[in-house]
Specification:
The protein is of the alpha/beta class. The protein is about 20% helix and about 35% strand. It is built from four helices and ten strands.
């Protein structure tokens, strides 16, 4: 079993709450809008990390990480990007990639809206962890963690707090 933490839209901060919520995960997946190279480095020093860049990330991050990642954790195939949409409303390129790659889990960020949905058409779990930073229109900061057991995601948990209570490290 692999414990997974998922975050997005940190917009230049690493919160104390991230360290607490992800203390027992094996890997962190960041769905973009990291905000700075320093943030990415802090997260990588804390836990193994797979990240994609978002629309606010600069050239330094663009050169280091990709727009889309497709990888496996155990036998579970994961497709991750920043701007990807959600079931029935996927971005065209993502819809084509989902059809081709057939992931078990599709992760995206950008909307700042926490969303966990099962897509019956593509038989995948879609997760948008919302925004964990302070910047944006959201009033709640959120992150997600779950367990992958072979091919199956399970035991999903959500951390939600008022954006004003996010404390930077």
């Amino acid at each position: 079993m692999t414990r997974v933490g998922v975050m997005s839209d940190s917009h230049g901060i690493v919160s104390r709450q991230m360290y607490e919520f992800f203390k027992d995960v094996d890997i962190i997946l960041h769905c973009g809008d990291i905000g700075s190279w320093q943030v990415l480095e802090k997260i990588r020093k804390f836990k193994p990390t797979v990240a994609v860049y978002g629309n606010i990330d600069g050239a330094e991050i663009y050169q280091e990480i990709k727009k889309v990642e497709c990888f496996k954790i155990e036998d579970c195939k994961i497709l991750m990007t920043h701007i990807g949409g959600y079931p029935e409303h996927y971005e065209k390129a993502m819809r084509e990639m989902i059809a081709r790659e057939k992931p078990n889990i599709f992760l995206s960020g950008h909307s700042h809206i926490l969303r966990v949905m099962y897509d019956k058409k593509y038989m995948l779990l879609h997760i948008n962890p919302g925004a964990c930073g302070k910047s944006g229109f959201h009033t709640k900061s959120t992150m997600v963690r779950f367990v992958i057991d072979k091919r199956t995601p399970k035991d999903l948990e959500i951390m939600e707090m008022d954006r004003s209570s996010v404390s930077e490290v």
